[in-house]
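To close the chapter, one final illustration. This time we ask the reader to focus less on the individual chains and more on the assembly as a whole: which components sit near each other, and how the overall shape emerges from the parts.
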Amino acid sequence: MPDNITDLEVRALVDGVNLSDGHPRMSLSTSQSEIIAAFPEVFAHTRKLPVDVVEKSARAAFLSSLGQHSALDEEISFRSCYSSSTAIDMIGKAIRLAGRPVAMVEPTFDNLHDLLAGHGLRIRSVAETALASGPLDDIPPPGGVLFIVSPNNPTGTVLAAERLRDIAAACAERGTVLVIDSCFRAQDLRAQYDMYAVLGDFALDWVIIEDTGKLWPLQELKTGFLNWNAGNPLPLARMYSDHMLSASPFILRVVELFAEDGRHGGYDQLRDGIQRNRALARDNINLPPAYPDSRISVDTFRLPAGVAANALYTDLGEVGVHVLPGELFYWEQPNLGTDLIRISLARDPEAVVTGCQRVDQHLEAWRRVVIR
Amino acid sequence: MPDNITDLEVRALVDGVNLSDGHPRMSLSTSQSEIIAAFPEVFAHTRKLPVDVVEKSARAAFLSSLGQHSALDEEISFRSCYSSSTAIDMIGKAIRLAGRPVAMVEPTFDNLHDLLAGHGLRIRSVAETALASGPLDDIPPPGGVLFIVSPNNPTGTVLAAERLRDIAAACAERGTVLVIDSCFRAQDLRAQYDMYAVLGDFALDWVIIEDTGKLWPLQELKTGFLNWNAGNPLPLARMYSDHMLSASPFILRVVELFAEDGRHGGYDQLRDGIQRNRALARDNINLPPAYPDSRISVDTFRLPAGVAANALYTDLGEVGVHVLPGELFYWEQPNLGTDLIRISLARDPEAVVTGCQRVDQHLEAWRRVVIR
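The assembled structure is written out below.
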């Protein structure tokens, strides 16, 4: 099998300037450091509490801090998972058991597609542009599953509330389960309208994945929350209980404390840091940004004609700079991504500047060779 | 779908005396508490190291502390997972892609079977007694997968090195991939011969799951290690990279420190505590132990004729004592487990004594009713 994005990201973990994976690797803020300094007390605290109390409390803090108040409705089922990928894999397993066809947004992070494809699902590509505007008649597979991502990675595209309403109506009409991966929600205020309230207006089956893994430099101490409506036809509860008993109460409490810190300025700081790094990246690479409006913690640049992303990726790896080639995000039509590279902004500014300068130097050298 | 073991365990997390799940919930030792007191320093330390360095170091400490020295051979592939269940689910997904039939030991923890069955695999039952002795001719499915557990849960049965050698030879001859779940290895010295050295003597494809999740009361901070031989036909590396980038470096380092503590007396303390709790349980329930030689952190009792485990489970739940009914471990032939209940010993002694006394009182009352 060819390498997937994660394979390339693993290589980047080993050495050099890693602008490859989207995992947060920036420095901690002062108040975040204070939470970590209190880890022993956090551990002692959660030891004494029933797991379901800790779980509900973490989820309430996290989702309400992102405007998702209707997610806390008693009717809605939820589970805390090791990660959003764990949640997505459970969804894929449940879809296979239910025998439903799937349509999924393209481009998007390839592991979303691959996690589902590993279950042998039939997956049709839906262009992100077609999700964002235009007629919806042909998009929700009747009796199937529509899997979308908002904000989407790598484009940063956010579905507006009105458009989500139209998509929900189309799915409800066709008996399509609407699955939404919202893992980057905290990074973009435009994604923080009450999505659960919007969906709740329809006789619709839906699943939403929320996640803390993209936000805080917590060394993979994270939780994915899997949420679904009462009566959902996918056997999610069973797929979950086959896999796990509960997320770690310790991690859940850390998530709660980071979410509270987020609510009191931490999220603003997170978003400011990302936007500053985005400006630095754009200043230090002489290439046009592919998605100018993106607010998530990655940025994507369009390469000059004649430079193929995959070849550039290999060259840059040799000089110790790790980025991601655009082909991999186009899981159905890789040729649409050959002129794109994605870099991660969830780093300290120096790493972003150093990495971008090396990319730019490399491209300058290439330009000189081509011109000569 | 009927409830599985984890569903029942979730109910037990909420209230009462929980002798249901096998997750470790006993008090920490002094030296373990010291590691937790140093969590902030552990976090700061692993922030500075490459992930693969932390990962290799944790695995080396853990596996060598359990006698699995040949596991560290350069030729052997490994990955650190969120949990052993994550590893097993990846194996199931890989088996489905490879299209192999599976044979699995019975009885065993039902989620092992259910995780694989959720992938739509054909699974044949192999009696644990047939694995332990007798002819092996009909056991490894030719071109398939044989999935065994040693030490097994709930029986505590350990495959001796000589018998493992015979099973490995039979699998090698038939092109069967041998999968071994060794998650309870630390609890039984009889399981700590160098299993990887034994398997390495054969032209055999194998997978071994090691796990820290059953050992230490770390609130689900744990790691499953997925190990396999070079050239293994199951696409494990890809299933892994679709799902995750790496385990948490923080958790890996905690695992390393707990393993080092284990090597210097912690494992002896763990095993002593389990054996003391086993003696207390047997003293406080007037029922014969079903598996007298077991050394793992659960114990199983045989019910008097006329008491069905499922009915007893329900009755005990009403008085706030949570155990597990034996039916669930016999995933193919539940009728073989109707006279068994399993309790967890990974608790503080008071919980074991209180829970067992309540079970016994309940059975005494039942006996009086029946005799009268």
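Chain A touches chain B through 54 residues (CB under 8 Å). Chain A has two domains: 5-22+265-371, 30-264. With these observations in hand, you are ready for the problems at the end of the chapter.
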